């Protein structure tokens, strides 16, 4: 693993220098400096039906210094490239938030970012044009807090040396916290039968407290709402490298279905990384609209925004097919949504003793 990581760092630095060299060559050739990127609009995002992920289309746009606004963008890109290359040389890392503040120390005020959204988007631009992930630039998001719990032993690279960790025996009830770059993890051994991705912290804690990970040899992955890149990446690695089924357990509402969609098919925001982050074979375990009916779960009425979102999902390629059409139309018909914790109305053990075993058996997972 160490040599692979070093190779990715070297490649990241090389690509950064190549980008800077392209600007120099454009100057030297008497050209106006520019940078070409895929057009990052919803209309240029396509669903790749073969790979089952979101990808950018063929349309591109040019960031050019032929305007004051464009020149400022390229200036900020040049300063950021220099900072990232130096960061790699020094084997340091920084967060996306820190980059915004770091720009305040740059000697040219025109290179300062106006807000963090601007610096975040520039990092995404550099990922796209360099074909290098921001994790390999040593850029970290703010802490996501997502964790694992289950029969998995890993080796993690840290700045204090490698360490081996068992994600049940060597951790507390909180589990093992997923690092910003999951590619620094080596899977050593496991007794996992399937990966269970769980939307909410409350349900994750319920599964762990009830011993679901022990009873079913499950690796419980806390998504923490809309999952961070690190969470989606380690989920994909667990599926691809260990050949493990992945199931996603969320609330029963349209926004939670999109959480499943981001795990399985990727998101529009990270379309340039779909093949790195998405797990198209992931399955949705619930809460289903049918569960609301079958178990007479406590519910909330659908808001207008929920209804609009569900109607939109009927046209979304990620939710095509008889299963999703049937479930979404049922939900629109009953006009209700339910949280995972609504299963507690039938007892604290119902979710682990009855609901999940039944659903997982129906799905052929257990």
Helix content: 40-55%
Backbone structural class? alpha/beta
The major pleated sheet works out as: 6 strands, mixed
Integer average pLDDT: 87
Uncertain regions spanning at least 5 consecutive residues? 1-6
Based on CA inertia axes, which overall geometry fits? globular
SSE succession:
HEEEEHEHHEEEEEEEHHEHEHHEHEHHEH
For the termini, the CA-CA separation is 32 Å
Number of helices: 13
State the domain count: 2
Q: What is the CATH topology descriptor of the largest domain?
A: Dna Topoisomerase Vi A Subunit, Chain: A, domain 2
The CATH architecture of the largest domain can be named as: 3-Layer(aba) Sandwich
Radius of gyration: 23 Å
The multimeric state of the shown protein is single chain
Number of DSSP-assigned strands: 17
CATH class of the largest domain: Alpha Beta
How would you describe the overall organization of this protein?
The chain has helices spanning 2-28, 68-89, 96-102, 116-130, 201-209, 212-215, 229-242, 254-265, 274-277, 289-294, 304-313, 322-334, 350-362, and strands at 34-38, 45-48, 53-56, 60-64, 94-95, 139-140, 147-149, 152-156, 163-166, 176-177, 185-190, 194-198, 218-222, 246-249, 283-286, 300-301, 336-337. Helix 3 (96-102) packs across helix 4. Strands 10-7-13-12-14-15 form a 6-stranded mixed sheet, with helices on both faces. It has a 3-stranded antiparallel sheet with strand order 9-8-11, with no helix packed on it. The protein is built from 13 helices and 17 strands. The protein is an alpha/beta fold and 366 residues long. It folds into 2 domains: 2-140, Winged helix-like DNA-binding domain superfamily/Winged helix DNA-binding domain (Arc Repressor Mutant, subunit A), CATH 1.10.10; 147-362, 3-Layer(aba) Sandwich (Dna Topoisomerase Vi A Subunit, Chain: A, domain 2), CATH 3.40.1360. The chain is globular.
């Amino acid at each position: 693993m160490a040599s692979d990581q070093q190779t990715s760092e070297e490649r990241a630095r090389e690509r950064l220098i190549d980008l800077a060299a392209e600007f120099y060559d454009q100057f030297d050739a008497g050209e106006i400096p520019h940078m070409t990127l895929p057009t990052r609009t919803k209309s240029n995002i396509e669903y790749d039906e073969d790979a089952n992920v979101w990808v950018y289309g063929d349309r591109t746009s040019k960031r050019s210094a032929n305007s004051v606004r464009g020149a400022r963008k390229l200036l900020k890109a040049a300063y950021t490239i220099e900072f990232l290359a130096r960061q790699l040389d020094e084997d340091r890392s920084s967060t996306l938030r820190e980059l915004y503040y770091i720009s305040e120390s740059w000697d040219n005020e025109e290179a300062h970012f106006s807000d963090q959204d601007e610096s975040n988007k520039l990092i995404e631009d550099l990922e796209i044009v360099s074909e290098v992930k921001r994790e390999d630039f040593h850029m970290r998001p703010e802490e996501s807090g997502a964790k694992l719990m289950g029969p998995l032993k890993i080796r993690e690279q840290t700045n204090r040396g490698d360490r081996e960790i068992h994600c049940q025996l060597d951790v507390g009830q909180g589990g093992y916290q997923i690092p910003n770059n999951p590619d620094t993890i080596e899977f050593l051994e496991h007794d996992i039968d399937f990966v269970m991705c769980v939307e909410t912290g409350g349900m994750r804690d319920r599964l762990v407290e009830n011993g679901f990970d022990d009873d079913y040899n499950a690796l419980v992955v806390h998504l923490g709402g809309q999952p961070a890149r690190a969470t989606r990446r380690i989920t994909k690695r667990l599926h691809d490298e260990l050949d493990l089924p992945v199931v996603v357990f969320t609330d029963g509402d349209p926004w939670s279905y999109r959480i499943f969609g981001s795990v399985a098919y990727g998101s529009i925001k990270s379309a340039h990384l779909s093949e790195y982050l998405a797990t198209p074979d992931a399955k949705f375990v619930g809460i289903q609209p049918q569960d609301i009916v079958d178990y007479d779960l406590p519910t909330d009425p659908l808001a207008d925004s929920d209804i609009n979102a569900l109607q939109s999902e009927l046209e979304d390629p990620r939710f095509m097919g008889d299963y999703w059409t049937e479930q979404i139309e049922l939900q629109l018909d009953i006009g209700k949504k339910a949280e995972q914790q609504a299963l507690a109305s039938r007892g604290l053990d119902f979710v682990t003793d009855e609901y999940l075993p039944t659903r997982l058996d129906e799905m052929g997972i257990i």
